[in-house]
Design goal:
two-stranded antiparallel sheet, alpha/beta, 11 strands, 890 residues
Length: 890
């Protein structure tokens, strides 16, 4: 693992300090946590009952470290010899040991990140990174009034998606969380007895983690995915949202914070595709969508009920000192009339505490809303907000400023943010499905099950809007939008489903431009769309608001990562200019993945590099798979992530940031053109080579990844391995990551930089052009997780030395030119935390890669397609382990 593990005299095992060249510079506390958890894992392996397992793990660990340090063929051969010596059963146990270690190392890093955040103090950060510094900068650049207006219009809208990029089972994630809770507890314990008990419990949980089968036996259903997302809401988001607003309000109010009336806007809105995204997923039906919305509503209403009950119980201010105003007195009378029995029961407990009585009755009404009791239920969140603000105003008028502006304000923020629906459930469907359905309807032919299901979705949306309000589900995304007719089709289908325009649900139809050609045609499609009657009608009703979604994944798979990045920038620039010319308030929806090949990387840096006028204080972005848990799994990390994204969204359209981005885009326009042309040509030459698609399927575990029940949606839109066209971007990226090549994140850039050849120009662009700097930094990160020797072993499986050489040559070329451009001696050298993490992990990821290669060679040699055989099981186990080690999937 991270250290030499040796038995101690009483038969247990311990992990000594890590190799100094890999982790000597890591913060001592982090190193201590990793070493301590590794020690406990070693003891669990010693006690596992598998004779010699610990020694085999140690033998492989020692061999991969030697190969990593020496980078010699002989050392590499030693690793393969150790791996070849394992029986199938032993190889599986060793793979599970290394995977378990990565889960513990990831946990230690997250724990340390939280520790660092807690020790940061009240740092305002930098403009675009911290809310405090951003507000100061905006006031300097815009003046107070304009800065306040920008703040009032701020909107950050993360959308949770069910893309299958979370490789861990929920049982594994839960076990890891329990270990994390014990690690937190250990930090605050000093008593030796408590520490000993804590260690006993840690050993128990690590043993459970080690013995939990990391492979799912069944593919999760869409409702399983919904419930997994709900765990994030329950554990972090519901509590974190008011903390973020309070953080902003503290910056605004200064010493008056908590006493002055809060002015921070409720700028967060949560969306979800989970249970609504049916593009290519036959398991997401109208019934599933309805159930997903009901589950979300249950969770948020339970949360609001608990919060209101807690606040009401604590609000024991006396009517003598804090007299209720006329508004609260009238509200109390209305409540007594609405349900005399409930009002009397509450009044007995608080006869002289009217504010308390009103809030507790409000809690009862929230619970009735959850239970569907029409007699007491709130019609919509706005009526609840009105009651809460009535109480708040009365408290303020009576002088109880802190009671008015404290926990009660937090509840108001939660209702403003989550409503009664928690997250707006967005529906997505492929344009081709709509076309087929309309053909049947227009022809009068008997309707197929597919068409009936399409129509039922619109009835479901209408029902959700009646039950939870229009906000609950009004966004409808059309995948592969190729024309204005693709967008107009949604309105026609909605009317066909419900019988009339009046009965149809309110819908904001959102085009999704995914491929290179679609991005290039985006503005002409939008121009035609707003001339159609459905768009004209919706523009008038919405205040001329339009949302446009940009797909990062398919465009990157289409033309390569460099051209896709530049095409997305150009598309945003054109769409923003088109919106301004048509007096439209535009929100761009960025369909980014967690990995670099799907638009990943530090999101706040990417936001600040967007074209002027394309953000304007409004940002919507997908949060996918493992990214959801990385960003929102811990409250402290979630607060920091939301602060960063809000600050970047607010600052992106500042005069200073906009001027810098615009000037750089003009200065380096010719460079952009050359990078685009050369990189796209290099990428096309590779992926259009004869036999490339089946070669790709052979040299990576692409087909085998499809056997992993990661998510409810199939990995392919079709079944052929002869073409990449129907392969989803997620397995495309995931497969290259597993092979330690990461091709989707960098291929073509090296050729493009070499064609430019002017290092001084490239270095100047790196310093002055934000989009280029983000690209180079992301590629450095991607390359840091590659390995030439291991990559060569995977590529050799395809028996195509021409394609293998093309990939390896481009990898070396890209590494050489990226370092020359950034001026770094080593990859990510200017990001020491990341550099240390990569160096710390790489040798142990190598161990799993060698085990995976063993399985893959055997499968390729025998042609086995049995997902239950030992080779397939070992391969799938290592897929989980490599994903945990690299912290990247799709």
């Amino acid at each position: 693992m991270t250290a030499t593990e040796t038995p101690n005299p009483n038969g247990s095992a311990r992990f000594d300090r890590a190799r100094t060249d890999i982790s000597g510079a890591v913060d001592a506390e982090l190193r201590g946590d990793v070493g301590y958890l590794g020690n406990l894992l070693g003891r669990v392996l010693q006690e596992s009952g598998h004779d010699g397992l610990y020694q085999d793990v140690e033998a492989l660990r020692t061999a991969v470290i030697a190969a990593y340090e020496r980078d010699a063929d002989a050392a590499f051969a030693d690793v393969e010899q150790v791996v070849a010596s394992f029986s199938p059963e032993r190889a599986e146990l060793v793979a599970r040991a290394f995977t378990c270690y990565f889960h513990l190392a990831n946990l230690a890093e997250e724990h340390h990140r939280v520790r660092v955040l807690r020790h940061r103090g009240d740092s305002h950060g930098l403009p675009g990174d911290g809310l405090g510094a951003t507000l100061v900068a905006l006031r300097e650049q815009l003046g107070d009034a304009a800065a306040d207006a920008a703040l009032a219009g701020l909107r950050f809208h993360p959308v949770l998606t069910a893309h299958p990029t979370e490789a861990r089972r929920r049982a594994v994630a839960t076990a890891i969380r329990r270990v994390g809770e014990l690690l937190d507890e250990r930090d605050s314990s000093e008593n030796s007895i408590a520490l000993a008990e804590n260690e006993r419990r840690l050993l128990e949980e690590i043993e459970t983690l080690w013995r939990t089968d990391p492979l799912r036996t069944t593919r999760p259903t869409p409702l399983d995915e919904v419930r997994t997302a709900m765990s994030v809401f329950d554990q972090t988001l519901f509590e974190v949202v008011p903390r973020v607003y309070r953080l902003l309000d503290d910056r605004i109010a200064g010493s008056a914070a908590g006493k002055a009336r809060p002015t921070a806007p409720a700028f967060l809105r949560l969306g979800t595709w989970i249970g609504g995204d049916r593009d290519g997923n036959p398991f997401v039906t109208a019934e599933i969508t309805q159930q997903a919305a009901a589950i979300a509503a249950e969770h948020v209403l339970l949360g609001l009920h608990r919060a209101a009950t807690r606040i009401g119980t604590a609000l024991t201010v006396s009517d003598l000192d804090t007299p209720p105003d006329a508004g609260v007195s009238a509200l109390l009378a209305a409540q007594q009339q609405l349900d005399p029995d409930t009002a009397e029961r509450i009044g007995v407990r608080a006869p002289n505490e009217v504010h308390r009585r009103v809030i507790l009755f409000t809690a009862a009404r929230i619970d009735a809303t959850r239970r569907g009791d029409a007699r007491l239920a709130y019609a919509d969140p706005e009526h609840l907000l009105a009651d809460l603000r009535t109480v708040q105003g009365s408290l303020q008028a009576a002088g109880a400023q802190r009671a008015a502006n404290g926990e009660l304000q937090n509840l108001i923020w939660q209702v403003e943010t989550f409503g009664f629906h928690l997250a707006e459930l967005e529906v997505r469907q492929h344009s081709e499905v709509h076309r087929r359905a309309l053909e049947e309807i227009r022809s009068g032919a008997e309707r197929s099950p597919m068409t009936n299901e399409v129509l039922e979705v619109f009835r479901t949306i209408a029902a959700l809007q009646r039950r939870f309000g229009v906000r609950a589900s009004r966004r409808y995304i059309v995948s592969f939008t190729r024309s204005a007719a693709d967008l107009a089709a949604v309105s026609e289908l909605a009317i066909a489903a419900t019988g009339s325009l009046d009965a149809a649900p309110v819908l904001d139809v959102i085009p999704l431009f995914e491929t290179f050609a679609d991005l290039e045609a985006s503005t002409s499609i939008l121009e035609a769309a707003i001339r159609t009657e459905p768009f004209q009608r919706r523009l008038a009703a919405s205040g001329r608001r339009i949302e446009v979604m940009l797909g990062y994944s398919d465009s990157s798979k289409d033309v390569g990562p460099v051209s896709a990045t530049l095409a997305l920038y150009r598309a945003q620039e054109r769409i923003a200019a088109w919106a301004t010319a048509n007096d439209i308030e535009l929100t761009l929806f960025h369909g980014r993945g967690g990995s670099l090949g799907r638009g990943g990387g530090p999101a706040n840096e990417a936001v600040l590099a967007q074209p002027p006028g394309s953000v304007e204080g409004r940002l919507k972005i997908t949060e996918q798979g493992e990214v959801i848990f990385a960003q929102y799994g811990d409250q402290e990390i979630a607060v920091r992530h939301l602060e960063q994204m809000a600050a970047a969204t607010l600052y992106a359209s500042s005069p200073e940031n906009g001027a810098g981005v615009s000037a750089a885009a003009d200065e380096f326009a010719d460079l952009a053109t050359q990078l685009d042309t050369v990189s796209r040509g290099a990428f096309a030459e590779l992926v259009t080579a004869e036999g490339f698609a089946p070669w790709f399927a052979r040299v990576t575990p692409m087909e085998e990844i499809g056997l992993l029940p990661l998510g409810s949606r199939p990995a392919r839109r079709g079944l052929s391995v002869e073409s990449l066209a129907d392969l989803r971007a997620i397995p495309w990226v995931f497969s290259w990551t597993q092979a330690r090549i990461n091709l989707a994140g960098w291929y073509g850039l090296g050729s493009a930089l070499e064609a430019v050849g002017d290092i001084a120009l490239l270095q100047r662009a790196f310093r002055a052009w934000p989009l280029f700097a983000v690209m180079i930094r992301n590629v450095e990160m991607s390359l840091a997780k590659t390995d030439d020797q291991i990559a060569a072993k995977y590529l050799a499986l395809g028996d195509r030395p021409d394609l293998a050489s093309a990939v390896l040559d481009e990898m070396q070329r890209t590494r050489r030119w990226v370092l020359a451009t950034s001026g770094n001696q080593d990859l990510v050298a200017d990001r020491p935390t990341l550099a240390r993490a990569v160096r710390l992990r790489s040798p142990y990821v190598d161990a799993l890669s060698h085990l995976q290669l063993r399985a893959l060679r055997s499968i390729r040699a025998t042609g086995s397609a049995d997902p239950q055989d030992a080779d397939h099981r070992l391969l799938l186990l290592t897929v989980n382990g490599v994903a945990a080690g690299l912290q990247n999937t799709g």
